[in-house]
Design brief:
The complex is a heterodimer. By secondary structure, chain A is mostly helical. Chain A is 62% helix and 1% strand. Chain A has a single domain, classed as Ferritin (Up-down Bundle), CATH 1.20.1260. Chain A has 13 helices and two strands; from the N terminus they run ααααααααααββααα. Chain A has a two-stranded antiparallel ribbon. Chain B is 64% helix and 0% strand. In chain B, helix 2 packs antiparallel against helix 5 and helix 4 runs antiparallel to helix 5. The chains are: A mainly alpha, B mainly alpha. The interface between A and B is large, with 49 and 54 residues.
Chain lengths: 329, 251
């Protein structure tokens, strides 16, 4: 997912231990959240709440700007004016979302520069899905429709959370993402109903993205550590499995109705309305999250290049030795 | 007249498409997120201008569909100036190109608001309002970086020195231009160049940089006649990579 709340056993244990907090303040804080109030930057909040939110929003912001890279390389190859203009606007939105989310995270006390440093030194993560390559134009269609579709499921749920600045950012982001979904769907439909070359490349792209999409929402509930606090504090609002199920329920039929398939004979909805699928190899998920995916190194190398190549610009803007004076005439 | 008018529209459209394509390459790698966003916005505007100009060629002058004009012509059929073809390089070059090119664009469209060819005059009224913001962006950054650190000042001056002969190539003369002047379609490249030199020289001087001497510049011509730098062919190959997979398909 974009902003991951998956915890290690140790982290979950620490989360649930709030003995160091002022009991009265903590009670008042939890009562406010229970009443559906939003927490704002100047309000009192437990240290763990702040920490988990920074982690989640920061990861989400990184996901936006790193996510712009695989799609960005196809702006120059989009096949006509309409697609080219739509794709530039779409990728620009993603960068804009990053900017908005870094600002939301900054309200909790970590600067954008610190967050970008942590992205580059590998201390903070971004969505695993962007460590896979977009090898053909059809990958752009699949990303625009299904990856953005999955992101919307995640973000709509998170927008009901307890932290005001994050919720407001997410509301605006979801509004823009709904247009991304339309352009992704339109692109998918054109390829699906087009020539054999187009159909074949689309099917191949769906086959490539099936597993990363199952990974998108994080490991199954039975494999991940839980924190009741995160749920109670409305930092996490739905379980990984619930979100994944909602995504499959919404999007699998839309792909099947175009006469396309998924590369999994066990993908089906059972009598209880729950989607079943083959094991998507959670070891691969862990390997990729820990840096060993097909594109991890490339993505970070591009970010490092941007940071280093642009340093002189930022320095000149921050420390003007000779400020520009407006001429009198 | 229609031949000269076609030439004018083609070179303007080709300039806009190719600079838009180049500017879009900054998406994701700018010196700060705000600059990714700015270059992306300008790229969208430029590609939109190209589309509008190709549409005029298609609807009023019997030329092929805009997607064919943008994506299906050979290198030699393009008449963009070589300035817009150059790779984005580092930010100093891209900013300087943006500054020099957009001042020419703004003045060109301002002149064209009075064109006797109404579709172009109408478009010019709309486009000049957009380019006003491109110029504002370029001027703001040029001034700040020219007065920033020693490094940024040196980079701006060397970027200017490198880009200048290419920028002067924007105003390369085309055959039959006198037809346009005679019929009040467009005042001409020489007049545009004169106004441009005045405008950019003032801003460059105010920013504390030195304007290179025009008479000592080895101006890079050729683009308007279909002779291009080694960078245009790979750009077009990349741009048409997807559509060439199946040119008869709808994408």
């Amino acid at each position: 997912m974009y902003g991951s709340t998956n915890l290690t056993e140790q982290e979950a244990k620490r989360m649930n231990d709030t003995s160091a907090e002022d009991a009265d303040k903590l009670q008042a804080f939890e009562d406010r959240i229970a009443r559906g109030e939003k927490i704002e930057p100047d309000d009192w909040m437990p240290a763990e709440y702040r920490k988990q939110l920074i982690r989640m929003i920061e990861q989400h912001a990184h996901s936006e700007i790193v996510g712009a890279l695989p799609e960005g390389t196809w702006i120059t190859r989009a096949p006509n004016f309409r697609r080219k203009l739509a794709l530039i606007a779409k990728v620009q939105d993603e960068i804009g979302h990053g900017q908005l989310l870094y600002s939301a995270a900054e309200t909790l006390g970590k600067t954008r520069e610190q967050m970008l440093d942590d992205l580059m030194n590998g201390k903070s993560k971004y969505s695993n899905v962007f460590n896979y390559p977009a090898v053909t134009w059809a990958d752009i269609a699949v990303i625009g429709f299904l990856v953005d579709g999955a992101a919307i499921v995640n973000q709509v749920i998170n927008s009901k959370g307890s932290y005001g600045p994050y919720c407001r950012a997410l509301e605006r982001i979801c509004y823009e993402e709904s247009f991304h979904l339309k352009q992704g769907h339109d692109n998918v439909v054109y390829l699906a109903t087009g020539s054999k070359i187009q159909r074949d490349m689309l099917q191949a792209a769906i086959n490539r993205w099936y597993r990363p999409l199952l990974h998108f929402f994080g490991p199954p509930d039975k494999m991940s550590a839980h924190s009741e606090k995160l749920m109670k504090w409305k930092v996490k609002l739905a379980s990984n499995d619930d979100m994944r199920n909602q995504f499959l329920d919404q999007y699998v039929p839309k792909i099947l109705e175009l006469g396309l398939t998924f590369p999994d004979p066990n993908l089906r909805k059972n009598a209880d309305g729950v989607w079943e699928f083959s094991d998507p190899d959670w070891d691969e998920f862990k390997r990729v999250i820990n840096g060993d995916g097909p594109c991890n190194k490339e993505r970070l190398a591009v970010r490092r290049y941007a940071e280093m190549a642009g340093r002189w610009v930022r320095e000149a803007l921050m420390n003007p030795s000779d400020k520009y004076k407006i001429p009198l005439a | 007249m229609s031949k000269a008018l076609q030439q004018l529209l083609y070179k303007m459209a080709d300039d806009a498409l190719i600079i838009g394509h180049r500017n879009s390459e900054w998406t994701g790698i700018g010196p700060m997120l705000e600059e990714d966003l700015a270059f992306s916005s300008m790229a969208q505007d430029k590609i939109g201008h190209a589309l509008a100009l190709y549409t005029i060629l298609h609807e009023h002058l019997g030329q092929p569909h805009p997607d064919k004009l943008g994506f299906m012509r050979s290198e030699a059929e393009f008449t963009c100036c070589q300035l817009v073809e150059l790779p984005i390089g580092e930010y100093d070059f891209s900013l300087m190109r943006h500054f020099l090119f957009d001042h020419a664009e703004l003045l060109r469209y301002e002149m064209l608001t009075n064109s006797s060819f109404l579709p172009l005059a109408q478009l010019a009224k709309k486009v000049k309002g957009e380019i006003k913001y491109h110029v504002l962006h370029a001027d703001t950054f040029l001034k700040q970086l020219a007065r920033g650190t020693e490094e940024s000042k040196a980079r701006m001056q060397s970027g200017l020195n490198y880009t200048w002969p290419y920028a002067l190539g924007i105003f390369e003369a085309t055959d039959n231009e006198q037809d346009l002047t005679a019929q009040n379609v467009f005042t001409g490249e020489e007049e545009l160049k004169k106004r441009w030199l005045e405008k950019v020289s003032l801003i460059i001087n105010n920013a504390g940089l030195t304007v290179p001497k025009v008479e000592e510049s080895k101006i890079v011509y050729g683009g308007r006649k279909g002779y291009h730098s080694e960078y245009l062919k790979p750009l077009l190959d990349e741009m048409t990579e997807v559509v060439r997979l199946d040119p008869s398909a709808e994408w």
